[in-house]
Amino acid sequence: MGGVTTEPALTGAAPPEAALLDDLTADLGTKVTEAWQEFGRALAVALPHLPAGASVEFTLDPTASGTEDAVYSVLVSSGTDGSLTALAVGNAGLPSGYRLSREAIGDLVALGWQPPGVVPGSGDSFGLRLMAGDGARLAVIVTRTMKDVYGAPHPAFLTYAATRGDGAVVPMPALGSARALLDDFDGEPADRAAAPGPATTERGDAAEDVDHATAAAALAGLPLTERVQLVVAKLQKTSPDQLQMDADGDIGIRAGSAMVFVRVRDNPPLIDVFSPVLTEIEPSERLYVRLSELTNRMPIGRLYCTNDTVWASVPVMGRDFQASHLMLAVQVMTGLADELDDRLQGEFGGKRFYGDAEKVAARGTADGDERTGMYL
């Protein structure tokens, strides 16, 4: 999620700098915005059809977001009188170090949440009660709460599950790139064909979603390294044995003039998607300020400089591994690294991974180990 904020120490910056930052992150920002819009639209369709007595909980996955014991969640329950009651976790439900700031609490109130205890039954949570006909409005509030207040960088970091009061699973239509917890208490995938409301999201029909759930279950039985290789191979439209891998087992992905690597770490389980954006660069205060500015504009990941190399990195948690999180990280990194190396080289010099034929030639897999060694 974002990097450490560093206040620029230099003055007299050229006016085009702000436009440059916008240009660098425009495509990525657009994709993230579209993903949230897709989630919100699907949620607006699903909430009015939530059966009476059922509840659906939306959670920022702590294993993917790195929030450890902090569980940021919103619970929406459907009443027998046609009402929808929503509860959003407050500071009483969050561990020290992850509690909401006064500004964040103000944002919750501005969205329409009532302070804890005001809505009957809300307890220590912020509460909100609307009629089912206001489902579209509630969808906007839930979406903005998860995104703007709880800090979910992308809907792919959200999980959701709907249940009745007796614990029975209530199928729901797909909600964009958020991850449905489909397993019921017998360990079998829930049948989404009977999901309430019209399943008209862009992710496909209910049968396709069940196929995806079955594939995910099969994937979960493999070692983390093999699961990562299968996901990257699917993105590359190839097979795992055709992936470009170096002597350390890092997977290499060509992204224009940049190279992106996918590395699996065992302890703790972690997948690092990273790129040596520029090497042989002279560190400077101006460079550090620019990298901090860019990092703060990125929905996920960070940029940093060590020794004479500028790196871009997006970590993916290996515990409770989710293919969608790795796919997002690879897509972000391949697009960003190819753009950044050109832009930053123009400002600060240095060398790109590819680009100078006489110095770093793209000679195929056999040479990949040598190129990787230059940067690690």
Characterization of this structure:
Residues 226-354 form the TY-Chap central domain. It comes from Virgisporangium aliadipatigenens. It holds the Pfam family TY-Chap3. InterPro entries: TY-Chap_M, TY-Chap_N. The protein has helices at residues 16-46, 62-65, 102-111, 135-149, 206-220, 224-236, 285-297, 323-348, 368-375, and strands spanning 54-60, 73-78, 83-88, 126-131, 158-164, 179-180, 244-245, 251-255, 258-265, 270-278, 302-306, 309-317. The protein is globular. Helix 1 (16-46) crosses helix 4, helix 3 (102-111) runs antiparallel to helix 4 and helix 6 crosses helix 8 (323-348). The chain is α+β, with helices and mostly antiparallel strands and 376 residues long.
Q: Could you give the distance between the termini?
A: 24 Å
Please tally the β strands and state the result: 12
Q: Which spans of ≥5 residues are poorly predicted at pLDDT below 50?
A: 1-27, 183-214, 356-376
What oligomeric state do the depicted chains represent? Answer: single chain
Pfam family, one: TY-Chap1
Domain TY-Chap central: 226-354
InterPro entries: TY-Chap_M (IPR054343), TY-Chap_N (IPR054344)
Region (Disordered): 187-206
SSE blueprint and pairings:
Layout: H1 16-46, E1 54-60, H2 62-65, E2 73-78, E3 83-88, H3 102-111, E4 126-131, H4 135-149, E5 158-164, E6 179-180, H5 206-220, H6 224-236, E7 244-245, E8 251-255, E9 258-265, E10 270-278, H7 285-297, E11 302-306, E12 309-317, H8 323-348, H9 368-375
Parallel strand pairs: 5-6
Antiparallel strand pairs: 1-2, 1-5, 2-3, 3-4, 7-8, 8-9, 9-10, 10-12, 11-12
Helix pairs in contact: 1-4, 3-4, 6-8
Domain TY-Chap central: 226-354
Protein name: YbjN domain-containing protein
Domain TY-Chap N-terminal: 34-158
